[in-house]
Known about the structure:
mainly alpha; 3-stranded antiparallel sheet; 5 helices; 3 strands
Amino acid sequence: MPTMTGDLISAIRDKQQRIVNLRREILALEAELREAKAILSSGKPKREVGRVEIRKRPIRPNSTVWWAHKVLTMERKPLHIDDLVRRVEEFSGHSVRKTTLVSNLSRYVRASDTFMRPDEGVYSLIEVDGGNEGG
């Protein structure tokens, strides 16, 4: 009987990990789809439009900033830093230090690059909310 219980627990853990992996894949695919739609509709990616300049160095894949971008792209709305940290941890499977993520995102906010802070402790993407301020 203990073997059967152990097998069930193992199967549950495997399924939970598969769900996390599938959520990551969905997140990445949705972001790619939005980017493709933006290119089709405007002829160039949205992040190149308006006051946002193309960054000199791309966001490093699988970094906390990269995951924050993916989460905010999927949510399509501003998130409080606590919710953002929780979602990044959920999708990335890694522990995230809130102070480090705030510091990293703040650099982008100060440079008006990719991220904006519509309220204290709340982050959003310029490409999502940049044109919707006040509306």
